[in-house]
Each structure stands twice: as structure tokens, then as C-alpha cells.
Amino acid sequence: MFKKLAETLFGKGPSEPSSDGFFLNVRCSECSEQFNLFINTSHELMQNFETDGSVNYSLKKEVFGVGCKNRIYVRMKFDGSKKLVSREIENGEYIEEKTKC
Ligand SMILES: [Zn+2]
Description:
This protein is an all-beta fold. It has one domain. The chain is about 0% helix and about 45% strand. The protein is built from no helices and seven strands. The strands form two sheets. It has a four-stranded antiparallel sheet, with no helix packed on it. A three-stranded antiparallel sheet has the order 2-1-7, with no helix packed on it. Strand 3 and strand 4 form a beta hairpin. The radius of gyration is 18 Å and the shape is flat. The two termini are about 30 Å apart. About 10% of the residues are buried. The structure holds zinc ion. Zinc ion binds near residues 28, 30, 33 and 70.
């Protein structure tokens, strides 16, 4: 008797970007406090018009916690379809999503 294994595509994990935004996970380099900020790509990205007529997006975020006076500066750049192309961070670090196996 054959038993077919149905591959499920459900439950891929919370790291999948939704259409409305994504989670920005950063850690303070001073006190290791972690921040999980939801970035709404519909409202929080700045639209930039290039001289050649193309459009791209950018995000600037200042993050500060309660534990210390450190301020984390996050800068991200996105292409015209709001896909992340580059990112920078000062005074902190990005926390990479752990992928489940
Ligand atoms: Zn801190």
C-alpha cells in the first residue's frame, strides 16, 4: 500500500515577510537589549524619485530603549518593489532570524 507524503507549505515560520511589512530585529551594542519592531512598508518607507524616473524606497529608524542612553540608527534601502537592497546600523546589530530545520 502506497503512502503518499503530502508536503505542507504551511507553518513556514514567522520570518516570511507579509505584504504589509516586516520585523526589524536589532540588539543594542551597549546593553544587549533586543528590539522587535514591526515596520509597516505601506506607511513607514520614504519614497525617493531618481532623476532617471525610477522610484525606490528608504527607511530611517532611531531605536532607543529604557535601559541605557545608547541610540541605534538603522538605515535601509529598498528597490521599487520594496525589496531590501542594503542596510546599515550604528550602535547596534541586526538579529538574524533563526530558520527552523
Ligand atoms: Zn542599550
